[in-house]
Amino acid sequence: MDPGPSVPAAQASHLLSSFTTFLTLTLHTLLYHRGLYPATTFLTARALNLPVHQSRHPGLCTWINDAVSSVAAQLRKGTVRRIAIVMHAAKTFDVLERWVFDVETFPVGWGDREERNYNPVLVEGVDEEGGVNWTDVNEALRGALRRISHAAEMLSALPEGSTFTLAVELRDGASAPIGVTSATLDTLPTKPSTTNRHLFESRFGHWRPEHNANPLCPSWSSLL
């Protein structure tokens, strides 16, 4: 396994928080713009100084947060090569789209603790200890999210009933998490055996707008 560069633990932990926030925003953005759920089931907020769309369904928010936490655990170990948000056909699970993030050059060490109260969106300037320019980091993430949003809007609509999953490709030599098969992004088109995807379909596949009365997800008010 060829790990990425090493950075001071405190700065690495902050960078991981920044990226996982970005990944969460990206998931909500793609679900909205690719029409996997009705537009009326999303609210509009601001994050990274951009207008963003957030699902209001608590179950979907929980799924996304759990999935991103699982990815973060692997990133913290330095085992991830690529992350993909994959759109699947409703019944065949054929791959319709992949939104791939190459993270092979990410640091191998992200620090030993999670910065749960750290909000990277509110950090600006240069970190004197590690030399991290948080303004540049936030601008890069903002630009990436803006490009993803624009690209997703321009694509033709997905077939009705399409679903999605979050996939991770590990670095060479990295062991798969316990209970997870060693499928890679290259084998994903042939009905990937991801229990998370099937669980997601059974919970949310037939969700309809009339469920709008459900309580809202925790909002991104801290990112406004």
UniProtKB/TrEMBL annotation:
Cellular component terms (Gene Ontology): zeta DNA polymerase complex
InterPro entries linked to this entry: HORMA_dom, HORMA_dom_sf, Mad2-like
Origin: domain of life: Eukaryota
Domain HORMA: 13-217
Spans through the membrane: none
SUPFAM superfamilies: The spindle assembly checkpoint protein mad2 (SSF56019)
Database matches in PANTHER family: MITOTIC SPINDLE ASSEMBLY CHECKPOINT PROTEIN MAD2, MITOTIC SPINDLE ASSEMBLY CHECKPOINT PROTEIN MAD2B
Sequence similarity: Belongs to the MAD2 family.
Name the UniProt record assigns to this protein: HORMA domain-containing protein
Taxonomic source organism: Gibberella zeae (strain ATCC MYA-4620 / CBS 123657 / FGSC 9075 / NRRL 31084 / PH-1)
